[in-house]
Design goal:
By secondary structure, the protein is of the alpha+beta class. The chain folds into two domains: 42 residues, no CATH class; 87 residues, Helicase, Ruva Protein, domain 3 (Orthogonal Bundle). It contains five helices and seven strands; from the N terminus they run E-E-E-E-E-H-H-E-H-H-E-H. Strands 3-4-5 form a three-stranded antiparallel sheet, with no helix packed on it. A hairpin with a 6-residue loop joins strand 4 and strand 5. The two termini are 26 Å apart. The structure holds zinc ion. Zinc ion binds next to loops.
Length: 131
């Protein structure tokens, strides 16, 4: 899924996730790299809950920099193995939240010392969200 700026025939780029005035929801903001036009995709409550419960900071950074953060981020960015079934479940999640969900699930898996993300791991994340 990609948004196209109709005026420029240019693919819009993801800019930021922002809080909205529409209750407890957030929007994903996309912008045209050529004319600067912006549009926002309003997440539904399920997507909002999913992203929030995965601890994604919405609207920018909220925690101060910590020592060794860079190293930890590098470790956090190394990918875990995903089973085919888990990948398929991930593929059903809306594309714009998928990277955040992937990171959140992998963080959950790492914290518990798992080496692989399975469908069961995704169930754990889901139940930890009370869904
Ligand atoms: Zn444009």
């Amino acid at each position: 899924m990609k948004f196209l700026c109709v005026a420029c025939d240019e693919a819009m780029k993801f800019v930021e996730v922002a809080d909205t005035a529409h209750g407890d929801t957030f929007s994903a903001v996309f912008g045209c790299p050529r004319c600067g036009r912006r549009i926002a995709l309003l997440a539904n409550p399920w997507e909002t809950q999913l992203v929030r419960s995965l601890g994604v900071a919405v609207g920018g950074r909220t925690t101060p920099h910590a020592p060794f953060e860079l190293v930890r981020e590098r470790l956090a960015n190394s990918r875990l193995m995903w089973t085919e079934e888990a990948e398929q479940r991930l593929a059903r999640i809306p594309e714009f939240v998928r990277p955040m969900v992937r990171d959140g699930v992998e963080r959950h898996a790492r914290e518990r010392g798992y080496r692989e993300v399975t469908s069961e791991v995704m169930d754990e994340v889901r139940s930890s969200m009370g869904m």
